[in-house]
Specification:
With about 650 residues, the chain is α+β, with helices and mostly antiparallel strands. It contains 22 helices and 33 strands. The radius of gyration is 30 Å and the shape is globular. The N and C termini lie far apart (about 85 Å).
C-alpha cells in the first residue's frame, strides 16, 4: 500500500501502482471526469502515471488538479503545442518538428520546412487542430531505450528529434508521448487526451527563425487558455495593447523615430526630447533630494579596465570595441559601474564619508541582435538612471530600505503600481567565492524583508557579481514590466581595488549597491506611453496645452495667453491656422495634447478660456486668471507640489 496526504491534511492508503485517476474515482465519479493531472510534493505528473514506491520515494503530499487549477494552464498550453505539431505534420507531410515550449500567455513550435507558412496555412492548421481535439486522442507516456529512440526518429526523418536525444545527458530517461497515432519526444506531463485541450486557442503568427550556422526553421506562435472567456479576454488585451503600441504613438505624437542607418538608436524629435527632459529633470530632483551626488564618466574606456572588472568576459559579445590609430583597444561602455569606482578611488575615503551615493544618467551601448530590438523598448543605445551606493556592511539594510522607499514613491508619481519583487540568486557563471555569495544573498534578503518586501525567488538569475532584487510594475491593462533593480556587490570593489579607512584605521572594502529605478529612459518612456495610451498626465506631456483660435479676431488674445503660459514654464503652443475649430480639436486630440484652450471673439472680449480636456466631454469656460491657475497646478510635477505644500506649512508655523 502507498500513503498519500491530501491538501486538507487527511491521509489515505491506496494499492501500490494506483494512478491519479484511480484515486479520483475512489473519491467521486465527478472528480474523475474533471481530473487532468496530479501534483506530488509540488511535481506535476500524468493522471494515469502509476504511483509506485520508486516514484513516491518519500513523497506523500498529493493533489488532484482540474482545469480550474492555475498550474493546469501550462500543461494545457504545452498540449496545444503538441496538437499544433500533429496538425502540421498531417497537413504538410515531410515537415520535421523540433521543440515546442510554453512562453508567456501561449506557446510556439519550431518546424523544419522549405516553404514558408502563409496566413491561409494558419487557418487550415487551426481548423485541423480543432478536429484533433474532437477526435479525443488518448495521450500516453512511454519509456524508450535511448539507442532505439534515436534509430526510430532517424528512420522516420525526424533528424532534429534524434539529435536532441543524442545531446541529452546519458542519465536522462527517454520518454515519448503517444497522441493517437502521432508521437513526440517529451518529458511531460500531459493531459489524458486531446479533448481536454479544449478549443480556447488561436494561432497568432508564423516567423522565420534563422541561425547563421544552421538550417532555418519556422516558428508558429499560438495562445491557449482554460476557457473561451479567458481567450476572449486575452484577445481583447492584445487588441488594446496594439492600440497602445509605443511605436505607433511615437509616430502619431511626433516623438521619435528609428531608421536603418542607426539600428537600435533613437532619433528624438523636439516633442519626444521635451518628454525625455521632463522625466530626466524629475529624476534629478528626486535624486538630489535623496542625497545622491551626480557624476559623469567617459563613454569609451580602455579594454583592460573591462577585463579587470570581469565585464569583458561576461559581456564581451555585446560590447562595441574600437581600435585607435596607436593600437589601443577601447570599449564603448555597456554600463557605468567601473567608471564610478574610478571616481571613488580618487583620494582616500573615510568611513565617515559613507554611504556615498553616486548617480549618473549614463549613456550606454550594447550590441543587441537585429531580431531582438523592439522600438525604444529594446535598443542598442540607451541611458540608465544609474546610481551606486558605496557603504559599510552595517549600512546595507538601511540604504536598501531608503532606496526601496524612493522607488515606490517615484512609481506612484509616475502613475504606476509596484506589482512584484523578485529575488535573483547566484548564476552558474559568476565572480566571487561561495562564501561571498552566501553573505551577499543573506544580506540582501534581510534588507528586503526589513523594507517590507515580499519576495519571489528566482534561482540562478542574479548578476555575475552579486544577487539582485528586481522590481516589476503593473500597467493599466495588467501587463507586468520589470524595471527597477537593486544589486548587492562585494566583488567589483575587490576587483577594482576600492577601499576606505575604517574606524580603527584599517583599510576595508566598501559594499557596492547597484541600483536603478526606471532602468533606462528609453524603455521607461515606451512603458509610460503604453500605460497611458499616449494620454500622459499634464505635467509629463510634451505639449501641455494648445491655444486654438476659432476666428482670426482672437489671434492677438491667443498670442497673449500663450506668452503668459510660457513665462510660467508651461509647454504651450499656438494654433492660428485658418481651419475649422473641430478639425483643430480632432488633430490635437489624436496627438494626445491633454488640454486644448479654445478662444473665439467672445473669449477674447471677456478675457476667458474654454478648456477642453483630452477624453472628456464638453468644455469648461473660465476667466483667464482662473484658467491659468488650473493649468499651472495641473502642470506642476508631484514632487514640486509636495515641496511647495511642505514649505507653505513651514512658513505658516514660523508665522
Amino acid at each position: 500500500m502507498i500513503d498519500l496526504v491530501f491538501p486538507d491534511g487527511s491521509s489515505r492508503q491506496y494499492p501500490d501502482g494506483s494512478t491519479g485517476r484511480d484515486v479520483a474515482a475512489a473519491i467521486s465519479k465527478s472528480l474523475e471526469k474533471k481530473a487532468l493531472l496530479i501534483k506530488l510534493d509540488g511535481q506535476l505528473l500524468d493522471l494515469d502515471r502509476p504511483l509506485t514506491p520508486d516514484l513516491l520515494a518519500g513523497k506523500r503530499k498529493f493533489e488532484i488538479l482540474t482545469r480550474e487549477a492555475p498550474e493546469a494552464l501550462d500543461t494545457i498550453r504545452h498540449d496545444t503545442a503538441h496538437v499544433l505539431a500533429e496538425a502540421v505534420q498531417e497537413l504538410f507531410p515531410g515537415t520535421q518538428v523540433t521543440i515546442g515550449p510554453n512562453v508567456e500567455d501561449g506557446f510556439y513550435y519550431d518546424f523544419a520546412r522549405d516553404e514558408p507558412f502563409s496566413l491561409d496555412d494558419l487557418e487550415k492548421i487551426e481548423k485541423r487542430m480543432k478536429e484533433i481535439v474532437d477526435r479525443d486522442e488518448k495521450i500516453s507516456r512511454e519509456v524508450w531505450d535511448r539507442e532505439e529512440a534515436i534509430a526510430h526518429f532517424d528512420s522516420i526523418g525526424e533528424q532534429y528529434k534524434a539529435q536532441i536525444i543524442r545531446d541529452l545527458p546519458p542519465t536522462d530517461t527517454i520518454t515519448v508521448y503517444r497522441q493517437g497515432n502521432w508521437k513526440d519526444l517529451c518529458r511531460g506531463p500531459h493531459l489524458p487526451s486531446t479533448k481536454h485541450v479544449g478549443k480556447a486557442f488561436k494561432l497568432t503568427g508564423a516567423y522565420w527563425r534563422g541561425d547563421q550556422n544552421n538550417a532555418q526553421l519556422q516558428r508558429i506562435y499560438g495562445t491557449s487558455w482554460a476557457s473561451e472567456a479567458d481567450l476572449e479576454a486575452y484577445l481583447k488585451r492584445v487588441e488594446e495593447a496594439e492600440k497602445r503600441d509605443h511605436r505607433k504613438l511615437g509616430k502619431t505624437m511626433d516623438l521619435f523615430h528609428i531608421q536603418e542607418e542607426g539600428k537600435g538608436m533613437v532619433f528624438w524629435h523636439p516633442k519626444g526630447w521635451a518628454l525625455y527632459r521632463v522625466l530626466e529633470d524629475y529624476m534629478r530632483r528626486r535624486l538630489d533630494a535623496a542625497g545622491y551626488k551626480e557624476v559623469k564618466t567617459p563613454q569609451i574606456l580602455d579594454k583592460s579596465l573591462w577585463e579587470k572588472s570581469g565585464h569583458a568576459e561576461k559581456f564581451g559579445h555585446a560590447m562595441f570595441m574600437c581600435e585607435s590609430a596607436e593600437g589601443e583597444v577601447l570599449a564603448v561602455k555597456p554600463m557605468n559601474c567601473p567608471g564610478h569606482i574610478q571616481i571613488f578611488n580618487v583620494g582616500q575615503k573615510s568611513y565617515r564619508e559613507l554611504p556615498l551615493r553616486m548617480a549618473e544618467f549614463g549613456a550606454c551601448h550594447r550590441y543587441e541582435p537585429s531580431g531582438a530590438m523592439h522600438g525604444i523598448m529594446r535598443v542598442r543605445a540607451f541611458t540608465q538612471d544609474d546610481a551606486h551606493i558605496f557603504c559599510r556592511e552595517e549600512q546595507v539594510t538601511e540604504e536598501s530600505a531608503r532606496f526601496i522607499e524612493l522607488l515606490r514613491s517615484v512609481y506612484n508619481d509616475l502613475g504606476m503600481t509596484l506589482a512584484d519583487t523578485k529575488f535573483s540568486t547566484r548564476p552558474d557563471l559568476r565572480a566571487g567565492s561561495d562564501d561571498v555569495w552566501d553573505k551577499a544573498e543573506s544580506a540582501l534578503a534581510a534588507a528586503a524583508e526589513a523594507a517590507g518586501e515580499t519576495l519571489t525567488l528566482q534561482p540562478g538569475e542574479g548578476a555575475f557579481y552579486g544577487p539582485k532584487l528586481e522590481f516589476s510594475l503593473k500597467d493599466a491593462i495588467g501587463r507586468v514590466w520589470q524595471c527597477g533593480t537593486l544589486q548587492l556587490d562585494f566583488v567589483l570593489p575587490e576587483r577594482l581595488d576600492a577601499e576606505y579607512v575604517s574606524e580603527d584605521g584599517s583599510k576595508k572594502r566598501p559594499v557596492m549597491l547597484h541600483r536603478a529605478i526606471l532602468g533606462s529612459f528609453e524603455r521607461f518612456i515606451g512603458i509610460l506611453l503604453e500605460n497611458f495610451a499616449g494620454a500622459l498626465p499634464v505635467w509629463l506631456a510634451p505639449t501641455q496645452v494648445v491655444v486654438a483660435t476659432i476666428t482670426s479676431d482672437a489671434d492677438d488674445y491667443a498670442r497673449e495667453v500663450v506668452e503668459a503660459l510660457t513665462k510660467l514654464g508651461m509647454r504651450a503652443e499656438l494654433d492660428l491656422r485658418n481651419e475649422k475649430i473641430n478639425y483643430k480639436i480632432r488633430e490635437h486630440s489624436l496627438a494626445k495634447v491633454p488640454v486644448i484652450a479654445v478662444v473665439g471673439r467672445k473669449e477674447a472680449e471677456t478675457r476667458q478660456l474654454a478648456l477642453r480636456r483630452l477624453g472628456g466631454e464638453g468644455q469648461s469656460v473660465l476667466s483667464l486668471e482662473d484658467a491659468i491657475a488650473v493649468l499651472t497646478a495641473d502642470a506642476t510635477p508631484p514632487d514640486v507640489a509636495r515641496a511647495r505644500a511642505s514649505n507653505a506649512v513651514l512658513e505658516a508655523q514660523i508665522a
